Amino acid sequence: MRINKFIVFVGHIIAILLLLVANITDSPQISIISLTILLIALVVFCLQDFDGKLGLSLYFVSMVIFLCARPIIFFWTRDENWMCGFFSGEFIPAINAIFLSFVCLALGYHAGSRKIKVQIGDFGLTRRFADEKFAINKLRTYSFYLCVFSTIIALYFEMQRLAYALANGYVSLYYSYENSSIAIRALIMSRSCLFIALATNPPIKLAKKLLLFSAVIPFIKLIEGGRSEFVMIMMFIFFYLYTDRENKLENKITYKKMKYIFLVAFIIFCGMPFLYAWGFLRTDRSYEMRNLLDGAISFMTEQSGTFNLVGYAVRYEGKLPGINYTFGPFIDRILGNNYASFTVEAAMNTNQFGTVMTYLTKTYNYLNLYDGIGTSYVAELLYDFGYIGVMAGNLIIGYILYKLTRFKANSMFFQAIYFIFFYYFFNLPRMNILNPIQQLVSATNISIFIILFGISKKRGGTQGYGTIGEKT
């Protein structure tokens, strides 16, 4: 244990010193080396207490894949495009921001572990759900069947979307296919019902079936080219199954947990080359893949386009028309900015960082193919508030991550909210920092919570409502 702590400490010191040298000498090569050493030190840091740092470890994986895998892999494999088209004056500040993000995430997580007596969820609003078994039975029954029903509806529309792509080409999904609002709301509803059902602490066999069924639509979206939903549901499933039934994390790795780790690692390793090849095949493009490892590496570099957004935040510093991009969703709502998507007006008059960046860097795709490059809270914080904003934002996220992984709800209501918030947290590196809150307070989520928890409070009509998955 002391050796591991020593490695972590020395690794951080060396990485920080190298980053300072890189900034002084204007050397992008040294900046990449410093970031690599930092990531190695953070791996050792997480392995010191993998169970206790599971949430942080998964978040680090998401950060690496979306934000920095491309420049790091390209650099160490001697790819000539390892600077991703940026000059050293743009590349090094982008690396600085990502470096500070990792460090502050770890510091925020460590700060969260300090003994501060704060109880979350003990407000007495829905406390009686834990004591009235019949309310749990009803809530589990209603949420289970509504989850299945809404998933089937969403699956129907998703199959139509897939059929359209097969007939007209996958690129057509971006510029000529009109998504149904019913499908979008049905998918959100299925997620809400899933988390409410899981909040009732169902038998593990029932939970596995429900999670597997809920992963069908994200898998279809993955075939269509959408990766976010699949990544989020897979990470959530791993976290849910890895933790025990009361969502407590033990400070030891059991044989059962090791099976989960190796199984997930094997599936990911075998799946990445397939997904890399499929990304080319579905758009009739040629590709080269020498072996599985080469395919896995190529897949990871394909996902790290979000790094470019951090570089763009440096390149366009002080030149963009928005008021503030970090709080853009709320500002646009207050100002009533409601422009049609993929128009010049939407790019120049709203506070959406991904929108204006797509318009400026990929104008043709934006206006003609209705294609976007997404966003990243790191890029938004860097543009709006500089390094101070990046540090503060990631300190808060690290602190919240610790509280989420240690969270023990006193009611099913807060447990369901916890599941929703944690689910959307995994995709945060390529989203706006307020995205989990936006998802949580969406009209569909609020309606589902009011309906399901409302009808579950009723005491009458108890016959016929046994607990799904249990003998009654």
From TrEMBL:
It holds the Pfam family O-ag_pol_Wzy. The chain crosses the membrane at residues 7-24, 30-47, 54-76, 91-109, 142-159, 210-240, 260-281, 385-402, 409-425, 437-455. The keyword Transmembrane helix applies. Keywords: Membrane, Transmembrane, Transmembrane helix. It comes from the Bacteria. This is O-antigen polysaccharide polymerase Wzy. The lineage of its organism: Bacteria, Bacillati, Bacillota, Clostridia, Lachnospirales.
